[in-house]
Specification:
mainly alpha; 2 strands
Length: 230
């Protein structure tokens, strides 16, 4: 790992361990350099001050590339469409993959912790806005392709952007709840019979459902309708 990236990653690790206090001020140059296995001179070679480092660390932590789940969900949908699977199975596979990666991603708790700072820090607020806008922009074309493939359109007054924002908020919220009370966020729901009412759906057999993927199907049914009602 390059020195600059190693120092940023070390700062992110320290911030995960100490996410309270004023934004990033608890992340100091010396502990960062020690965590990264670099010298303090290497730190100041890349940043003239701790404040400059903090600015780059915020951008590093909130870079949408840290959310591997977005690309994984999109890739799963696009890979499954040519296979002719029932709609609910495509949704189940993509949503389950998304939820698995979000729950395992060490950056997600940090992003949520920084969200608590956005009311007092315009820089954090701007980066979070850009972060979520990027996630939505990545997913909206994929959802449109999915809906077109299964003959769906958005039910007024909903938009594809609203659908994307809802699923992002849902996966983050369930990730928080699963971390503190996993028994109320089951990962092995049986296939519920009424899910088969989703447009284009069929039997998913014994494939595992989780609370997130099952809820996504319900949201999809509530926010969409057949493009040709006839």
């Amino acid at each position: 790992m390059e020195t600059r990236d190693a120092l940023l990653e070390a700062g992110a690790a320290l911030l995960r361990e100490q996410p309270v206090g004023a934004v990033l001020t608890q992340v100091k140059a010396q502990p960062v350099a020690q965590r990264a296995g670099r010298t303090i001179g290497a730190f100041y070679h890349h940043w003239s001050s701790q404040e400059a480092y903090h600015r780059d660390l915020l951008a590093y932590v909130l870079d949408p590339q840290r959310l591997l789940s977005t690309a994984a969900a999109a890739d799963t949908v696009l890979a499954d469409l040519p296979r002719g699977l029932p709609l609910e199975e495509v949704v189940r596979r993509a949503a389950r993959r998304n939820f698995e990666i979000v729950r395992a991603n060490p950056y997600v708790p940090l992003i949520l912790a920084l969200w608590g700072k956005q009311a007092q820090d315009e820089r954090v607020r701007e980066l979070l806005r850009a972060h979520y806008r990027s996630v939505t922009d990545r997913l909206v074309p994929v959802y449109r392709t999915l809906f077109d493939a299964y003959g769906l359109t958005m039910r007024p007054p909903y938009t594809v952007e609203m659908f994307a924002a809802t699923l992002t908020a849902l996966v983050e919220g369930l990730t928080v709840r699963a971390a503190v009370e996993p028994e109320v966020v089951p990962l092995d729901l049986p296939h519920a019979g009424d899910l088969s009412a989703a447009p284009g759906a069929g039997a998913a057999g014994a494939a595992p459902w989780d609370l997130f993927s099952a809820t996504v199907v319900g949201i999809l049914r509530a926010m969409t309708m057949p493009a040709d009602p006839a």
